[in-house]
């Protein structure tokens, strides 16, 4: 499985030959693919700074109702660590390999996603983007508002996350997982999961010994309540786009403000990332300028995306009711 964006023939697989990569000139890609440590370190510093700021807001708001928005904001910054985890899994966040691995594993531990496991799962997502059965991360379009709300709340995410850790701990990976984890790396993936769980247990034991709620207040609770923010972002990337091999139509680019783009490491330029996943995050804005006329799925913000999704859900429900009663379609 490969998806480096150099040309259309190397995107996807025989089962799912992705298209769209041919429209990016090789000459442009060669320049855009240049990696550097500086942008990644600057974004990492901004992210850690934001975490310290929102963590301080929680500390200062203790005993007041202001702790609720402070916790929600801190949780949003925590779950956005998915962005450096994601970029490091591609090996493009930094020029140095050890930085990609170290920062990726740090973000993985904090956001509760095994780094190596995610790397292989995400490769399958890029190879089979929007394939109904082979894309492990496809989010089917919600058929009702209830289903939409449950997706946003992460009701299906948490059982999947717990299941991933349990199967990694016991070594009983599912057939789907064995389809994207190389046999030669199963032990490494399992070892990382076991060590991560051991670290979580150590944090719990130290917290109990010190009678400290710090881990809960500044990490676990915010991490939990912040998940809907990430669910909404992840849904915007593909949900409602075409379920076809056309990367220019099956992935959505969402135009966001500079602050959010910094904290989400330019991942709102998502169609660009899928077309050329070897291009580092800091060059995606430049790639967007070249690709913009060719993109079929672009939104002017996350509110617009979810407004469209909700309207489509309601429209489909109306059509279904009218069809069942014999009314006008």
Textual characterization of the structure:
This protein is mainly alpha-helical and 329 residues long. It has one domain (35-325). The chain has 16 helices and two strands. It has a two-stranded parallel ribbon with strand order 1-2. The longest helix has 25 residues, at 214-238. The chain is globular and about 60 Å long. The model is unreliable at 1-9 (pLDDT under 50).
Provide tags for this entry.
329 residues, mainly alpha, two-stranded parallel sheet, 63% helix
Q: How widely separated are the two ends?
A: 43 Å
Number of structural domains = 1
The radius of gyration computed from the alpha-carbon positions, rounded to a whole number of angstroms, is 21 Å
Helix fraction, binned, reads 55-70%
What's the rounded overall pLDDT mean?
Answer: 93
Count every helix, treating DSSP H or I runs of 4 or more residues as helices: 16
Please write out the topology.
Elements: H1 26-32, H2 37-60, H3 67-79, H4 82-89, H5 97-111, H6 115-127, H7 145-153, H8 157-170, H9 175-180, H10 186-209, H11 214-238, H12 247-250, E1 253-254, H13 258-263, H14 270-275, H15 284-291, E2 298-299, H16 302-325
């Amino acid at each position: 499985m490969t998806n480096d964006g150099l040309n259309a023939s190397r995107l996807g697989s025989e089962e799912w030959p992705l298209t769209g990569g041919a429209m990016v000139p090789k000459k442009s890609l060669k320049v855009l693919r240049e990696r550097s440590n500086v942008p990644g370190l600057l974004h990492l510093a901004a992210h850690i700074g934001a975490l310290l700021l929102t963590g301080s807001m929680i500390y200062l708001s203790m005993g007041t109702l202001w702790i609720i928005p402070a916790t929600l904001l801190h949780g949003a910054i925590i779950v956005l660590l998915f962005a450096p985890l994601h970029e490091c899994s591609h090996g493009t966040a930094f020029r140095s390999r050890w930085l990609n691995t170290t920062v990726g594993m740090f973000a993985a531990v904090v956001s509760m996603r095994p780094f190596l496991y995610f790397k292989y799962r995400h490769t399958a997502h890029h190879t089979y983007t929007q394939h109904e059965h082979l894309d492990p991360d496809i989010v089917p379009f919600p058929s009702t508002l209830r289903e939409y709300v449950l997706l946003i709340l992460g009701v299906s995410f948490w059982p999947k996350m717990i299941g991933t850790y349990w199967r990694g701990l016991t070594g009983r990976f599912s057939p789907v997982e064995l389809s994207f984890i190389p046999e030669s790396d199963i032990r490494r993936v399992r070892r990382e999961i076991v060590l991560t769980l051991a670290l979580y247990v150590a944090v719990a034991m130290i917290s109990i010994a010190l009678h400290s709620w710090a881990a809960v207040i500044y990490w676990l609770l915010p991490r939990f309540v912040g998940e809907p923010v990430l669910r909404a972002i992840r849904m915007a990337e593909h949900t409602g786009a075409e379920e076809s091999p056309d990367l220019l139509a099956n992935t959505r680019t969402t135009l966001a403000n500079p602050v959010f783009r910094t904290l989400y490491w330019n991942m709102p330029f998502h169609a660009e990332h899928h077309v050329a996943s070897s291009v580092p995050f800091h060059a995606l804005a430049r790639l967007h300028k070249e690709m913009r006329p060719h993109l079929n799925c672009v939104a002017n913000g996350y509110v617009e995306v979810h407004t469209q999704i909700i309207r489509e859900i309601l429209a489909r429900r109306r059509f279904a009711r009218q069809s069942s009663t014999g009314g006008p379609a």
